Each structure stands twice: as C-alpha cells, then as structure tokens.
Predict the 3D structure of the following.
Amino acid sequence: MKPDSRPLDGIRVLEVGQLLAGPFAGGILGYYGAEVIKVEPPGDGDPLRKWRELDDDGTSFWWRSLGRNKKCITADLRSEEGRELVRKLASKCQVLVENFRPGVMEKWGLGPADLWAENPSLIYARISGYGQDGPWASKPGFASVCEGVGGIRYVNGLPGEAPMRPNLSLGDSFAGLHTALGIVMACLHQANHPGSKGQIIDTALYEATFNLLEGVVPEYDGAGVVREPSGSTITGIVPTNTYKCSDGKFIVIGANGDSIFKRLCETMGHPGMAEDPRYANNTGRVKHEQAIDEAIAAWLGGLDSVTALALLEEARVPSGPIFSVADMMVNEHFQARGLFEEVDVNGKPLKIPAMVPKLSETPGRTDWAGPEVGAFNEQVYGELLGLDSDEIAALKTKGVI
C-alpha cells in the first residue's frame, strides 16, 4: 500500500447539487480519496460561494473548506447540451450525488433510470427535505424546517419558550453524513458482489434528524412520555449541566456516574451529599436535580473558571470550558490532534478544519482548497470526455459551460 493511499481511492463521484447537504457528502468522500467532480451552473456557481464572510476575491471562506479536493466544472442543466454533458460524465462515474427537489432530475432526463441505461452499476444518492416518496415528498424542505419536523427543535431550548436552534445548519450536515455513509455501504456491497447493479440512496433531511433522537420514540410508545426541552440539562441524567463561574465564563460538568458524583461532592466540600442515599444513584439524583444544581452553581459562583476546572480535573470529574472558534485555534490539544489544515488560496494561507475520523493507515487529507468556478473544465471535459479545445471553447461561447 502506498503511504499516501486513501480508502476511497479509485471511486469517482459526480456531485450535482448545491449549498450544503449534497456538497457536504461530496466533501467527506473527496477528503478520503474519492475523485469528486462537482457540477455548478455557469457564472456564479454554487450560491454558497457568496454566503457569509467573503475573502478579498469576493468568495466565501466557507467555500474554501466545503469545496476542498473537488474538480469544479460548469454545465447549464437548463440546456439539453449541458444535460448531455452530465449524462456522459455519469456513465464514467461510480457514484452520483444530487440534492434537488424530487422529480427535477427526472424532468431533465437525469433520473436513475435514465442514467442506468448507460451505467447500470451507478450508485445514485439523493438528498431532499422529505424523501423521494410519501405525501410530503414535494414540499420544499430546508434544514431549518426539517429540523423542526424531525424532532430536534422540539427538545432544544427552555421550557415554555420558543424552541432554539444552534447557530449551524445541522439538518444539512446530518443528511450529508448519512448520505456519505450510505454511499460507502453501497460501494462496499458492490466490492463484495462484483457485477451487482446500482441502487438508490434516499436521504431525507428530516429523517437524518429523526435518526438521532436516541430513546425519544420508544419512551413515548412504551411509557407515553414526551421528552420536553430542558435548557442546558438533559432529561433523566443528573448532574450534567452548564454552570457560570465567578469570572463570567461557563463550564460544563458531567458528573452523572455514581462514583464521579461522590468525587464532585467531596471536591465541593459537601461530603454529606456524597454519602446521602438519596443521591447514591442516577434515579435518586433525577428526583433532586434542582437541589444538586443549586449546590454546584453556588460552589462555582465563588471560583473562577480556571481554578474550578483545575480542581475538577484533579478529582477526575468530566468537565470543560465552552470554546469559541478563537479558543479552539490556540488550544494545544486541537493543535496536537491536527484539527486545522492550512491551504493556499490565490497565494494567501487559510486554515480550514480537518475532517474526522482519523484513520491510522489511510488518513484523509486536503489536497487543495475549494477552487474557482469552472477551474477543472478543460481537464474533466478534455481528459474524461475527450473534448478538444475548440469543442470546449464552443460550449463556453454558447453558455453551456
């Protein structure tokens, strides 16, 4: 095995979609070795290129991360010539990823049946708000809405107040992760069953969220209990909460193990609480959650966060600070674990996050930052489809690419 081998070497992926869910799946595959050809509309390309903070060239910093390792080409899917280019590319790929509204790819003649006619082993990964079938399939499904339908918004926030969302598009990322996993499983199936036909991977944003609800469903069906929002705690596990220290900084403590809770009480100077049979196990602690949290909050209110965390670490009580990205960038553990990679963007260095998990023998890596619109047109259309420079120039003149 070559030292720089990656687990998805030899897999060619055609990414047809934009914004986050589909491109996030493609980004994971590309990081671990897949050749990812990303199709964008001519002109401005993927809208994410202009989202949030922009660099001096007017391109999103986020794009440089999400578009890493991708061979970006352009094709106008509203034109028959553009769609024909995609058909030809799909015939030379093992995987296609798309996240259009259900039915759009079929309308363009790019649905699974259309592409399987030329490439019957193609793995066709589809991401949408509500899936490819069912009464809600045609509904527009952005992550913000699907997080609500999928259940994560309901349990997030303070009781009696409007549900909260993290300042992230989690539904899209959840869907991208599930899709990447589905693609790897489908590739593994084909590797173990040579000659097997392609299959559809149907990922819905609300279902990717629903899949992470832990025991919410069986608890409701078995006990009739609806898990409600619980602020910074988690229902049924005590103590695990966020607490404010005297310097105004917040820390997290997870002392829900029986022996850990005893050590916490002794560290706080409450040996009586440590030996109190009411708090001996999690069931009892749940009944007395308010008293326990008040005791912890009172103790931390007299300590700065650095001192508190040092005491908790000495007592082997799981705890930690609430990090911003600025904290992460200078933290010794983040640095030691290699969680930042530096890329070159038009002659300027930029740090982007490394991807996980870490593989000891075939690790992933970033080869290049998200490139400019159509940066790989000549290479992909020339080398893969055999178009000469005049044909490529003609397509560009007509606005097809």
Q: What stands out?
A: The chain has a mean pLDDT of 96. Residues 170-192 form the longest helix (23 residues). The chain has two domains: 12-212+337-397, 240-326.
